Amino acid sequence: MDLDGASAATTVLDLPVRGRWLVQNSPADRVPSHGTEAFGSSHAIDLVPVDAGGRSGRWSWRTALATERPEVFHGFGAAVLAPVDGTVVDVHDGEPDHEARRSQLLLVGYLLTQGRRVRAGAAGIAGNHVVLSLGDGGPVVLLAHLRRGSIRVAVGDAVRAGDVLAQCGNSGNSTQPHLHLQVSSSTRWEQARGLPMAFRHPVDGRPWLPRNGDIMDA
Prior knowledge:
Layout: E1 11-13, E2 20-24, E3 45-49, H1 61-65, E4 79-81, E5 86-92, H2 104-111, H3 114-119, H4 122-126, E6 128-133, E7 140-146, E8 158-159, E9 164-167, E10 179-184, E11 197-200, E12 207-208, E13 215-217
Parallel strand pairs: 1-11
Antiparallel strand pairs: 2-3, 2-13, 3-10, 4-9, 5-6, 5-8, 6-7, 7-10, 11-12
């Protein structure tokens, strides 16, 4: 989705990943992209690391009937990069990278526990995460579901776009390893508003937002 007419209110980011990634829950297709305005997530996007064939992980009998270890997924541990120059204003680590669920049967059961994760707040939903502020008054960029123990930055650090922040994981409200990215008005998540975002296209630098199901090479 080209955004040549992107407004000044749209935050344009560098891609926070390298390699091949599948796009899910893109605000290019609908807003709110995740079906909710909660936690400033109305314009969030999910990026799932995949192999050359577009698969997030090797299929086995466990894919259909059971949980799967996050380590069997293609991008578990892939580098997550700062998408913009900014200051680290929040870091949370220590949440486990839990078993992944691609089985439709198990996903139904997982949805029934969603309320518990919401009540746990940002840690329950975002898992291990880093938040960058673009200025004293925001906006802020949240990178979530990071691998436990992989975060390389601390609150107060100044980072440049392209710096390695952490690794892709499966913590928080995540059914398989992926990166959740959003731009929000503040870190007061109960009140935060989701804000429009776009990426710089890796070829020509124009503002661009991939759609659901797109596979992008970063």
